[in-house]
Amino acid sequence: MNVGDVIRVETDKGIFEGILLPSTNENIITIKMKNGYNVGILKENVKNIEIIAKGEKPKYELPPLNIEKNEKLKTISILSTGGTVASKVDYKTGAVHPSFTADDLIRAVPELLDIANIKGRAVMNILSENMKPEYWRKIAEEIKKEIEEGADGIVIAHGTDTMSYTASALSFMVKADVPIILVGAQRSSDRPSSDAALNLISAVLAAREPIKGVYVVMHGESGDTFCYLHKGVKVRKCHSSRRDAFKSINSIPVAKINPFTKEIIYLQEVEKSDNSKKVEINTNLEEKVALIKVYPGMDGEIIRFYVDKEYKGIVLEGTGLGHAPEYIFEHIKYATDKGVVVVMTTQTINGRVNMNVYSNGRELQKLGVIGCEDMPPEVALVKLMYLLGNYEPEEVKKLINKNLVGEIEYRSRFDAY
Amino acid sequence: MEINYEKVGLKVGLEIHQQLNTKRKLFCHCPTILRDDEPDGEIVRVLRPSLSEMGEVDRAALIEARKGKKFIYQFYNDTTCLVELDEEPPHPPSEEALRIALEVALLMNMNVVDVAYTMRKIVIDGSNTSGFQRTIFLARDGYIETSEGKVGITSLCLEEDAARKIEDRGDAVVYNLDRLGIPLVEISTAPDIKTPKMAKEAARRIGEILRATGKVKRGLGTIRQDINISIKDGARIEVKGVQDLDLIEKVVENEVIRQLNLLKIRDELRERNAEVVEKIFDVTEIFKDCKSKIIQNALKKKNGKVKAVLLKGFAGLVGKEIQPGRRLGTEFSDRAKVIAGVGGLFHTDELPKYGITEEEVKKLKEFVNAEENDAVIIVADEESKVDRALEAVIERAKEALIGVPEETRRALEDGNTAYLRPLPGAARMYPETDIPPIIIKKEFIEEIRANLPELPEEKFERFKKEYKLNDELAKKMVLSYYVDLFEDLCKKFKNVKPVLIATTLEGTLKEIKREGYDIDKLEDRHLEETFKALSEGKIAKEGIVEVLKGFCEFPDKSIDEILEIKGLKGLSKEEVEKIIEGIIKEHLNVVKEKGEKAYGFLMGRCMAKLRGKADGKLVNDILRKKLKEI
Fold first, then answer.
1. pLDDT 10s digits, B102-118
2. Is some CB atom of chain B closer than 8 A to the CB atom of A65?
3. Do A63 and B55 touch (CB under 8 A)?
4. A248 and A313 share one domain
5. Which among A377, A379, A378, A373 has a CA at the least distance from the CA of A401?
6. Record: fold of B266-405
7. Comparing C-alpha atoms, which of A225, A257, A251, A255 is closest to residue A236?
8. Which residues in chain A have their CB less than 8 angstroms from residue B63's CB?
9. In chain A, which stretches have pLDDT less than 70?
10. Is residue A416 part of a domain?
């Protein structure tokens, strides 16, 4: 008996007929009835099962579109890391099959035809929550390859959970003369209300712009009206489920994108491309960097644990302006004495770290802790990985609170919050 | 004309959707209340059709197929949440709703499934923010009894109600989210129903069972009935939105008549070798000086046109009545209206008329080469609409050559039906993986079975015994829309006779409705306040009618305000005594002359003054006492 077979099940509650479906519970037989509904039967209630017909192997191929290249349009490469911007629903089994070729993308979002020549490729199949530095390196390498092969812009389809970490990593590792746009969806792309299509259209619109740098494109508000272009080192997922979960932190979005009119309104200055198509990557990352959230009553022993494990950097997510309890100061000193770079961010997320205002901050600075200005904790974590991967600790201490790729803004805008 | 329903092969199935009166919505924790006040905000959404349906390769067709539709959703911050806005995954289903649904299933002798799955049914008309409706199949293979036999109940599902459509703003449809997510049970019968009367009876029986749970919502719109009707050689027609029990019988009768007449027309058309000419003629020139207001208004439009199609052999049949007051031409018109949005059409069976002259009709017929036995249909409007309208007419006329097309139709108030849309294909469903499967344990089923609510026949006996209602009144009360309210009021106001409460709910309300008062404005609270006032002696039972009329006129007023407005301010016993003493003094000579025989006369005078303000019995007692004292 295989999934897809048509079976008849005799039970004490009568006879059920339908297509056998995969079941997550081994004690349950799940079938799809003729009326479209799925129903479960406890195996303990089954009297007899017979196969009425063998199931067909489902096919998920549709005829190729044979799209011709439009010489007037830029070429944009869409690379998937495992998020599904496009997907096909098999109503027979309910399975949602990710699809990621240019044809699949265009079939799902035909508006792309008028915007750019599209190349589509899956470079990995990783759930966002399973992302790690080695995958960031691979993404960077794939970006380089695509640009060298002629792409005018790059779109990275990525799960939303850790998108801002990846955006930060690429910001530091990749120096390219074309835009690199990360995009995702808060609602799965199989449903009619999905935000995937508008986000993807907006991302491709941004990717063909004569700009450079790494950005994130997601819904600008709950309604299907516009998307924001966020700087990759100034954005964070701030809500677990809303479409407009992504917010620029300590900054305003770079641009507002209307996927219906294709209009892009820039809200601040951006780095312009010089059409050189140059691309360089530096994928050296020190992976032994930890992020520790400070809380009342915490046991500072966690810091010694990391130090003894030969960690090279620690990001503290402190309270308020960048504070930590005095009873962990001895542990922090243990770390800095051992040459570990310890930096301070704030769990208020918004606002600038300033360790000169209160004695707590001043004492921390004496211990060697360095403030990270207005960087969110996640960005500071990635930046520290990058710096420790490329510089000596003393140099790292000088660079951590200096802007490299836009991660620090020295002016604090009132309207950024 | 008496129709033999068995002979014509009538088969009817019902699909009943009933809202449940739960504390929270099915998939979130919002209350299940509808609102008419200003929403706190609106958001715009675009719903795109699913990828799986499409095989289009042509670029333009692909773009058209994937074009989304725009909707506006109104929300309230305190009674709708992120779930209705499709901004948060669904919460586990309401256990209360699940229990009620299972009660209904057991009351209808159904088999409950071991494991139920929440499914997504694709809906992209905007009535659901996610683009699908969540629905759970719970039970099957039940039955109910009617006087004409058993009716199988093939399925019972628990699902969420749709958002309420507010208006069509042209470029977007507006919905309010207050109704989205209210739990519904969907009950489908087998096509076992064989007569219109049986259909009505089955629907009534299902309604009785639903109300027996005490957990279904009452009021217009909380129950919706769709009827599937077919006859031999005819077609399955789904009639949507039948709200009223009496209308069910009428709708079935009229649908049978319609289908029989369409079959007759088909036979006549075939005999005439009728043919639909698939060509659209531009006849604008013929009508440029036409006196018809409709045509003149159409020609003033940008790209306004009058166009025609030729239906060979259709003469005399387009104007033929197929339902009381509706003709084959009405069917053509329905299609044109729904599909193209035009206001209607003209056909030569009804012309010359409406300002269109005999001369113009003659020219029209010549232009399209119509013969004696042919009919011509014309539509006047903006050109693209006219073309789409006439294409729809051509399609429908071709269907007339075959017989009865399968359709979804809308019930009209007179029991007729009008075209709504094609019959939907198999619903596209796939699992809602955000909600785990629901394992329904045997112990849970047995616990519910042991606590099943009382059925109408049991209630009937109890009402007679407990409330001392006679047979007629008990029966009426059991079937009454107000049955739950009746019991509530009896429990709350034990010094008020149940008979009085029952006759008020089932008699008085009907009377004042007949007098023209809008009793739909009355809520439970109004009746509760009325009987509370009676219970406390604020009004006499004679005052009930006036108070209820007052609440119909001023639904927002309090009971005290109504009493003031109606001049029914309560009188204390002392006040009543004083008034009676005054009347006796005023007529002392009559008392002296007639002695105790003056009672009748004086009672009349007293009640003229005290009616509605004091109980008749109280007045009687006081008056007799006073007379004896003299």
1. 999 999 999 999 999 99
2. yes
3. yes
4. no
5. A373
6. Gyrase A; domain 2 (3.30.1360)
7. A251
8. 110-111, 113
9. 56-62, 83-100
10. no
